[in-house]
Every structure is written in structure tokens, then in C-alpha cells.
Design brief:
alpha/beta; single chain; binds iron/sulfur cluster; 294 residues; pyruvate-formate lyase- activating enzyme
Length: 294
């Protein structure tokens, strides 16, 4: 029994065969660190905690290396190149298009996902991506994190919720699929505020959404602020977090696919929460809770 629309449902609707994401690292920087938009970055961010990219000299080599891993086991698998780390639209447009097209020219790669900030996209770039999207699916994932400007300011995101709304609208207008990313448990947010963000998500209606628990990561400004007692973060037990996820599922527009609710930073970087669960174990607990509530 399907308990909510998930990412597999979304992929099955968009692609005729099984798709696997392959993370690539295009070695972009972040405009919220290099001064183009802000300095210091988001207070919770340590980019070393992002999923490791398969190293290689070029986008092509990275994709070939990671494709090998799956190709033996699943010969019919097709692939999506996932530009994940940092801000993957933060470069001159010609360079961006070269990199995206390079990924799409690798054998087996049918689509790209571009992870970026909502304030790092232009009509010009979206027009060019819409052109690519006529032949190869392009998906843009914007880091939104919260619908509350007070929270965005507290964690130094350096953009507003309205900026997210505008980016989603501009992207959807061009027929490009949009994913949004949110963090649950940001400082200053209570359950009511989190549910208000779900209402705001329903309003902008992205195609997909990703949530994850706030992870307090070593060597971040937030970790320092929490340690100094300057800032408090909400602390959830696994049960409390699962109940919150159930509430989100019941509230979210059922046409929006939910990709995930948890993320796992490398153990040596993670301070909190240390729930000791693998992602699949969390999903099993969530599904059981949903079944018990239905
Ligand atoms: S979360 Fe993204 S936007 Fe924020 S500092 Fe890290 S890379 Fe930059």
C-alpha cells in the first residue's frame, strides 16, 4: 500500500525505465561564502558533510566511474547526473551550459538535476535550460530550507521566502520540474512554524520536496553558537520526529512527491542528532507509524 507519493513515483511518471542518480562535483563555489551574495555561508553548513562525489578529472570521467558501479548489476539502468555540491549555477552561463551538456553527452545519462540557491538563477539561464529540457529532462532543486524569513535570517541564508516563490514560478513557467529542499528543526522554529512551511510548500507546489532533520555538524558556526549557548535548537527524539513527519505527510498536497525525510552526515562530523538509524531503518519506522495511524 502506497502511504504517500514518493520519489520513485515521480521518476516512474517521468522516465520509461529505472533511473539512478549519479552525483557529480563540478567544483563550483558558493555565493554565500565568496561574497557574491554573502560571507560565512549558512550557519549550519559544512560542505564536507554533503554526499561524496566520485572523484575524477572531468564530469565525463566522474560519471563513467560511478556508472560502472551500477552497470554490472543493472545493465538496463539509465542515469541522472546530479550536480549537488555547493551552488551549481554559480558560474558564467557558457561554462554552465558546457558542463550540463557534457554530462548529458555521457552514454546512459538522460537527465540532469541542478542543485542551487533560489537567488542564483536568471531568466537567461532558465531559457537555455528550457531549450535543453526539450530533449533531456532538466530538474532544478532549490535550497529553500524554511518559509520563515526570520529563520532564514537567523541562519544567514541571505535570501527570502519570496525569492523561493519567484524562482519556482519562473522555473515552472518554462516547463522545467522543480524540487525544493527544507530543513526540519532549524533554530527558533516550533512545530506550528514547520507546519506553516508545509502550507507554503502547498502554495508554490513544487514537483518534489526533500526534507531532512537539522544536523548539527562540527566546525560550523551553528555548532559554535549552540555550544556557547547563544542559540538553541529544537531537539527531537526519533519518535517525535516520526510523528512530525506523519503530520507533514497528512498536510502536504498529495500531488507533491516526497523524496526523503532524513539525511546522514558522516559520523565523524555529526554532533546531533545521533539516532543511530540507517535511512532505510528510519523509513521502515515511518511507514509503520503511518500504517498505525491510518
Ligand atoms: S548550504 Fe549551500 S548556500 Fe549555504 S553555505 Fe552551504 S553551500 Fe552555500
Amino acid at each position: 500500500m502506497k502511504l504517500y507519493r514518493d520519489y520513485a513515483d515521480y521518476l516512474a511518471e517521468r522516465f520509461p525505465c529505472k533511473m539512478q542518480k549519479l552525483t557529480v562535483n563540478a567544483h563550483f563555489s558558493c555565493p554565500n561564502r565568496d561574497g557574491s551574495i554573502g560571507y560565512g555561508g549558512c550557519s549550519y553548513c559544512n560542505n564536507n558533510s554533503f554526499s561524496p562525489a566520485i572523484e575524477g578529472n572531468s564530469i565525463t570521467q566522474q560519471l563513467i566511474n560511478s556508472r560502472q558501479f551500477f552497470a554490472h548489476k543493472y545493465p538496463n539502468m539509465r542515469y541522472i547526473a546530479y550536480f549537488q555540491s555547493y551552488t551549481n549555477t554559480h558560474a558564467p552561463i557558457d561554462r554552465l551550459l558546457d558542463l550540463y551538456n557534457e554530462a548529458l553527452s555521457v552514454d546512459g545519462v538522460d537527465a540532469i538535476i541542478i542543485g542551487t540557491r533560489p537567488d542564483c538563477i536568471s531568466a537567461h539561464l532558465l531559457d537555455a535550460l528550457a531549450e535543453i529540457n526539450r530533449h533531456h529532462r532538466v530538474i532544478i532543486e532549490y535550497g529553500a530550507e524554511s518559509s520563515h524569513d526570520s529563520t532564514l535570517q537567523l541562519v544567514n541564508r541571505c535570501h527570502s521566502w519570496q525569492c523561493v516563490v519567484d524562482a519556482v514560478e519562473m522555473t515552472k513557467q518554462r516547463g522545467i520540474d522543480v524540487g525544493l529542499h527544507f530543513i526540519i528543526g532549524l533554530p527558533g522554529e516550533n512545530t506550528e512554524m514547520i507546519m506553516q512551511t508545509v502550507d507554503a510548500i502547498n502554495h508554490v507546489k513544487p514537483d518534489t520536496v526533500k526534507f531532512h532533520q537539522l544536523q548539527l555538524i562540527r566546525n560550523t558556526r551553528l555548532a559554535q553558537q549552540v555550544e556557547n549557548g547563544e542559540i538553541e535548537i529544537p531537539r527531537f527524539s526519533v519518535e517525535q520526529y516520526i510523528n512530525l513527519c506523519c503530520d507533514i505527510i497528512h498536510r502536504i498536497d498529495p500531488s507533491i512527491a516526497i523524496e526523503r525525510f532524513v539525511s546522514q552526515a558522516p559520523d565523524n562530523l555529526l554532533i546531533y542528532p545521533r539516532w543511530g538509524l540507517k535511512n532505510y531503518q528510519f523509513t521502515n519506522l515511518l511507514n509503520n507509524a503511518l500504517l498505525n495511524n491510518s
